[in-house]
Each structure stands twice: as C-alpha cells, then as structure tokens.
Amino acid sequence: MMFNVTSITALIIAASFAGGLNIYATVLTLGILTRFHLALLPPGLESLGHTWVLIACATLFAVEFVADKIPGFDLIWNTIHTLVRIPIAALLAYHASAQLSPQMQILATIIGASIALIAHSSKTAIRAAVTPSPEPLSNIALSTTEDLFAVILTWIATQHPILAATTALTFLLVMLIAVSKLIRAIRSRLNALLAPDPGEAH
C-alpha cells in the first residue's frame, strides 16, 4: 500500500480512536502486524515491531484486560489513563506522519490527540454510567467489546484505512450523542432532586 496524505490521515484517525479505547491493544496490534510482515506501516511506525515494544504492550494489555473489567476500579484505571492514551496516540500520529511536511506532521499530531481524547473521554463517561449496575456482566461485556473493537479497527486501518477512518468517525459521533444524552439525563435528575418540594411552600 502506498502512503499518501489521505491514507496516512485515515490511518491516524482510526488508530487514534482505537488508542482512545485501548492504547496497549492498538500499539500491540500494529507491532505484531509489522513484526511479522502482515501489514505495511508508514516508515515512522516500523519501530513498533521491536521485541521490547511487543513485550511491554502485551504485558500492559494483559493488565488492562483484567483491571478494566473490575467495576469501580475501572473508573480509576481509565482516569489515570487520560495521561497515557492521549499522549501515546499523539506520538503515534507524529511518527506515522513523519514523511509529511513539518506543518502536516504537527496537524496530524493534533488530530490524533484530539480524536483519542474524545474517544477516551466518551468511553470513560459511558463506563461511569454502566459501572453502578448491580451486576458486573454489563461492565465486562462493554470492556471486552472495546478491546476487540480496538484490535479489529487497528487491523482494518492497515488494510483499508478509509473504511477504518469512516467507521471510527461514525462511532465517535455515536459516542458523542450518547454522552450528550447522558449528561442531559443527569442534569434532569439533579434538577428534580434539587427542586423545592411544592408542599413545603404551605
């Protein structure tokens, strides 16, 4: 696959969205694909196939796979990873666009960080709404779906970047709408709780 501005941008959009969901799964998938020559990545991402990168990401992915499925602790884990997912997604975008002009590389980095931030924030907000559920299955199912989606989307991004980017942007929009509705529901609930009781006026 030849890498031009369009294909690199599409790869960055998809990988950044996947990274916002699970950055370790995203980097590990890219690393495995380039290590075993299953996909051709932009020159700036070839270092992801190094052994130490694969071992580190595999270990951290295994830890996150468990931690992210524990109700309550998953919120702490995701909050902490605000400092991990966004910077690493930005770094991936920076290196993926290394063959572009410096101005385009900066723009690509901003795009990558922004998409990862939105995906990560939306994921955390939705998880916060699901976590209080008395049964843990919904939390585990949601987390597992996010892990699988991150891996599959990353693989598609290396084969069909435009399709992957379109899919990522569509899900990004759906997540934003869901979070918006969630926020409105919370505000409505708070207003109902804080509203004065009509009976107290008499």
The arrangement of helices and strands along the chain is HHHHHHH
Major β-sheet profile: none
Beta-sheet strand percentage? under 5%
Q: How would you state the average pLDDT, rounded?
A: 92
How many angstroms separate the termini?
75 Å
How would you describe the overall organization of this protein?
- The protein has 202 residues and is an all-alpha fold.
- It has one domain.
- It is 78% helix and 0% strand.
- The protein is built from seven helices and no strands.
- The longest helix has 34 residues.
- The protein starts with a helix and ends in an 8-residue tail after the last helix.
- The model has no long low-confidence stretch (mean pLDDT 92).
